[in-house]
Design brief:
247 residues, Elongation Factor Tu (Ef-tu), domain 3, Rossmann fold, 2 domains, 7 helices, 21% helix, globular, binds flavin-adenine dinucleotide
Length: 247
C-alpha cells in the first residue's frame, strides 16, 4: 500500500497547450535525484495514481513535476487543470533506481531524454555530484516542436555555470529550428552526426549513458549503443546503459 499524504499545489506553469510543471508542497521523505514519486487523485471513488519524476534537486523543499497532458489520459488531464491551492495526493517515499548511485564510473555521461523525461536530468544536473564525477556531460533532449523545448532558462544557467563540461544538443523532429538537430536521435546516432556535433565519441571505455522516456527511443537507442560495444548496466554486471521507461 502506498503511503499517501496530501500535497498542496503552489503553482501550475503551462509551457504550451499540453506541457506543464506543478510546484507542490508536501512533507515527503528525502529522495535522490533521478527518482520518481507518485501522484494520485480520487475519481469516482477510486484512487488513480501515476509515477512522476522529481525535477527539483533533493536539496530543494518545493517539489517540482514536469508533465504532459496525454490526450484521453486518465490522470494527466486532471493534473494539468490543477490550480494554486488545490490538493493532490503524493507518496511520502520516493521510488526508483534511475540515479547516479546506479551509474558506474566513466569519463563522459550522456543523458538522452524524450519530452518530459528531461525532468530527472534537471534534478541530477542541479546537484553537485554529477559535475565531480564526469569530465563531460552531454544532454540530448528530443521533442517534436520547438515550443516543447521547456526549461531553457534552467538549461542556459547550467551551460553558463559549466561551460567546459556541459554540452546540450536538442532534437526537434517536426520543424527546423536553429541550434537543434532535425529528425530522430536514433538516425543521428546511427550515421555519427550526433557524435560529430558534440565532438565526443560514444565508447565503452569512456561513456556512461542514461536513457529516459519513450520506450521506443530507449529500446532503439540501446540497440544502436550495443553495436558500439556498450552494454546494459546491471547490478550484478556493471555496464554502460542505465534506463527508465515512462510507459
Ligand atoms: C518511472 C516513471 C516516471 C514517470 N515520470 C513522468 C514524468 O516525470 N512526467 C510525465 O509526464 N510522465 C511521467 N511518467 C508517465 C506517467 O506516469 C503517466 O503514464 C502519464 O502522466 C499518463 O497518465 P494518464 O493517466 O494521463 O494516461 P493513461 O491513461 O495512463 O495513458 C498512458 C499512455 O500515455 C502516454 N504517455 C504516458 N506518459 C507520457 C509522457 N510523459 N509523454 C507522452 N506520452 C505519455 C503513453 O502512450 C501511455 O501508453 C512516468 C512513468 C514512469 C513509469
Amino acid at each position: 500500500m502506498a503511503d499517501w499524504i496530501p500535497a498542496t499545489v503552489v503553482a501550475n506553469r503551462h509551457w504550451n497547450n499540453d506541457l506543464f510543471s506543478l510546484t507542490l508542497e508536501a512533507n515527503i521523505e528525502p529522495f535522490k535525484a533521478g527518482q520518481f514519486t507518485k501522484l494520485a487523485l480520487d475519481m469516482d471513488g477510486k484512487r488513480v495514481q501515476r509515477a512522476y519524476s522529481f525535477v527539483n534537486p533533493s536539496t530543494e523543499n518545493q517539489i517540482e513535476i514536469y508533465a504532459t497532458r496525454v490526450a484521453d489520459g486518465l490522470l494527466s488531464p486532471r493534473l494539468h487543470a490543477l490550480e494554486a491551492g488545490d490538493e493532490v495526493y503524493i507518496t511520502a517515499r520516493a521510488n526508483g533506481f534511475f540515479t547516479l548511485d546506479e551509474v558506474p564510473e566513466g569519463r563522459h555521461l550522456w543523458l538522452f531524454a524524450t519530452g518530459t523525461a528531461l525532468g530527472p536530468y534537471l534534478s541530477i544536473l542541479r546537484e553537485s555530484e554529477v559535475w565531480r564525477r564526469f569530465r563531460k556531460i552531454v544532454l540530448v533532449h528530443a521533442v517534436r516542436y520547438s515550443a516543447d523545448l521547456s526549461y531553457q532558462g534552467e538549461i542556459n544557467a547550467l551551460k553558463n555555470q559549466y561551460p567546459d563540461q556541459l554540452v546540450v544538443q536538442p532534437f526537434v523532429s517536426r520543424e527546423p529550428v536553429q541550434g537543434a538537430l532535425n529528425g530522430r536521435v536514433t538516425h543521428a546516432l546511427q550515421d555519427g552526426q550526433l557524435e560529430r556535433m558534440v565532438g565526443l565519441k560514444l565508447s565503452p571505455a569512456e561513456s556512461q549513458v542514461m536513457l529516459c522516456g519513450n520506450p521506443a527511443m530507449v529500446k532503439d537507442t540501446q540497440t544502436i549503443l550495443h553495436k558500439k560495444g556498450l552494454e546494459k548496466n546491471l547490478r550484478r554486471a556493471p555496464g554502460h546503459i542505465t534506463t527508465e521507461h515512462y510507459w
